[in-house]
Amino acid sequence: MASDNPCLTCGACCAFYKATFHRSETASACGSVPDELVEDHDSFRVVMRGTRWAKPRCTALHGDIGVSVGCSIYEARSSTCREFPYAWEHGDAHDKCDRARLAWGLAPLQARHEPSTVPLPELPGIEVHAGPDDVAGADATLGSRLVSRTRG
Ligand code: SF4
Ligand code: SF4
Fold first, then answer.
1. Which residues' Cβ are closer than 6 Å to ligand 2?
2. Which of 24, 63, 75, 77 has its CA 20 to 30 A from that of 69?
């Protein structure tokens, strides 16, 4: 992870979205994600432990959100996590990144990965730690992997 990666001082999506992915990505199924860090989600998917709790926070996340964070299984994380870009990482806006940051009181990133200087809007319908939605639906282009970072 590059040192200028804005995720290192964020972590909001890891404590906002349900991170589900196909169980074939778990270590016991010849994947990489430690089994002890996942829970069953449905017949073919597992979910990162902690991300479907009422106050979601992935148990692999360490550090303080909005200050300094890290993923304890970074090299072994699922495709769902690997393929979730931060806003402007690939030149495009990413509303899910923005929404997670806003829920944690963090300004959306600008094109150069700096927090926006525009005052945060009032979001009466969104609470910090709002109930998780699956992250999967949004990144449905992952096709047969049935990955999901969904907001449900
Ligand atoms: S919300 Fe965006 S900036 Fe924050 S950790 Fe997730 S992808 Fe990175
Ligand atoms: S596995 Fe790592 S990147 Fe994925 S949600 Fe958990 S802390 Fe975030």
1. 14, 19, 48, 58, 60-61, 71, 73, 77, 81
2. 24
Distant-in-sequence, close-in-space partners of 109: CB < 8 Å, separation ≥ 6: 6, 86, 87, 88, 97, 98, 101, 115, 116
User: Of the residues 5, 13, 81, which should be mutated to test ligand 2's pocket, given the most ligand atoms within 8 Å of the CB?
Assistant: 81
Locate the domains of the chain by residue range: 6-142
What pLDDT, in 10s, does the model give residues 43-96?
Answer: 999 999 999 999 999 999 999 999 999 999 999 999 999 999 999 999 999 999
Residues contacting residue 147 through CB under 8 Å, at least 6 positions apart = 20, 21, 22, 78, 79, 80, 83, 136, 139
Summarised one tens digit per residue, pLDDT across range 83-109 is: 999 999 999 999 999 999 999 999 999
